[in-house]
Design goal:
Elements (H helix, E strand, L loop, with lengths): L1 E7 L5 E8 L4 E5 L5 E8 L2 E4 L7 H6 L7 E2 L5 E2 L3 E4 L2 E4 L8 E2 L12 E5 L4 E8 L10 E10 L2 E10 L3 E2 L3 E2 L15 E4 L1 E4 L13 E2 L11 E2 L6 E6 L10 E5 L4 E7 L3 E5 L23 E5 L14 E2 L5 E11 L1
Antiparallel strand pairs: 1-2, 2-3, 3-4, 4-5, 6-16, 7-10, 8-9, 11-12, 12-13, 13-14, 14-27, 15-26, 17-20, 17-22, 18-19, 18-21, 21-24, 22-23, 23-27, 24-25
């Protein structure tokens, strides 16, 4: 495990980076937004980056589209940037047109978290106290995120303990590219999901749940991503075997495979079909359309307006918890 100063933000505050290392991988985490900045494995042509990321702090501050961050308090979209809880309406930051996205204009992804390391356990702990009213959310929340690297497997646990009822739904926003460069169009993808939540023109769910069959976006049988533009919330099969992976991606160019385990009810599937980043990423790469694949385990978007969907309201007696396991190795 190594630690270094990655940079200073525009207010002069230091942002540190911790690098977790094993015989199979090296994973770099920033204090800014719990960002997974880099994930390296050895490939047929040397060391390969498995996630999109940037070499400079200013690139994250000005050009990132949530690259590698833990987003929230509530990930994805909340329609109308407001919600009602216990008879009181709360106005959230509208940062996606009239809607609220990934926790607001700054959200958890833009905060500098406190860091603690446990070298014998190869684990990094990050902490942030979100004050009452931040981005419009009620209540103080003590957030904690941990990353532990075990061989090729990264285990991320996210908790949020509020002092009153408040919505919490976090997501890890890594962009994966198992080729180490180029696009993810040749990746083979499988996900344990046969349904999705349709959206309106602003990408806010309509409240329906429909089958994926016939949409061209059904990956319940492994197939190539190709030119399919993907940005939808999948309804993960509630009867799936939780001991087995929920999703799997493979790159035939490198023979690298990603397997992901989650207990969350949904997963945002996004392959960045319109992404164009103005600054270079890892190894001088240009990140354009289809440069990365997001597999964001989450509760359903706009759950605050859909009472029949799994609740995202956490309480002091029932705090928020999510466990995410991602393993990258040879297929």
């Amino acid at each position: 495990m190594r630690k270094r100063l990655f940079g200073r933000d525009e207010a002069g505050r230091p942002v540190e980076e911790v690098i977790l290392e094993s015989a199979d991988a090296a994973v770099s985490i920033l204090a800014l937004g719990c960002i997974t900045r880099d994930w390296r494995v050895d490939g047929p042509r040397g060391t390969l980056p498995m996630v999109l990321g940037f070499p400079r702090l200013e690139d994250y501050l000005h050009h990132s589209r949530s690259h590698g961050a833990v987003v929230g308090r509530v990930a994805n979209r909340t329609g109308g940037a407001s919600f009602t809880l216990d008879g009181r309406t709360h106005a959230l930051t509208a940062n996606d047109g009239a809607n609220h996205l990934h926790g607001g204009a700054v959200g958890l992804a833009g905060r500098i978290w406190d860091m603690e390391t446990d070298t014998p356990a190869n684990t990094l702990y990050l902490f942030y106290r979100s004050p009452d009213g931040e981005e419009g959310y009620p209540g103080n929340v003590d957030f904690a995120v941990s990353f532990r690297l075990e061989g090729p497997r990264l285990i991320c646990e996210m908790t949020g303990t509020p002092d009153r009822p408040t919505p919490i739904s976090l997501a890890n926003h890594n962009y994966y590219n198992l080729g180490g460069e180029g696009t993810v169009k040749d990746h083979l993808l499988w996900i344990a999901a046969r349904e999705y939540t349709p959206t309106d023109a602003a990408l806010v769910p309509t409240g329906e749940i429909r089958p994926l069959d016939g949409t061209g976006r059904d990956f319940s049988t492994e197939r190539e991503i190709g030119d399919t533009a993907l940005d939808l919330n999948l309804v993960l099969d509630p009867a799936r075997d939780r001991k087995r992976p929920t999703a799997r991606a493979r790159c035939p160019r490198t023979g690298r495979q990603l397997e992901l385990w989650t207990d969350e009810p949904g997963m945002q599937l996004f392959d960045a079909p319109e992404m164009t980043i103005a600054v270079p990423g890892h190894d001088g790469q240009s990140y354009g359309p289809f440069a990365g694949l997001c597999l964001e385990a989450q509760h359903f978007p706009d759950s605050l307006h859909q009472p029949d969907w799994p609740s995202i309201v956490a309480t002091p007696e029932k705090p928020y918890f999510q466990r995410l396991v991602v393993e990258i190795g040879r297929a």
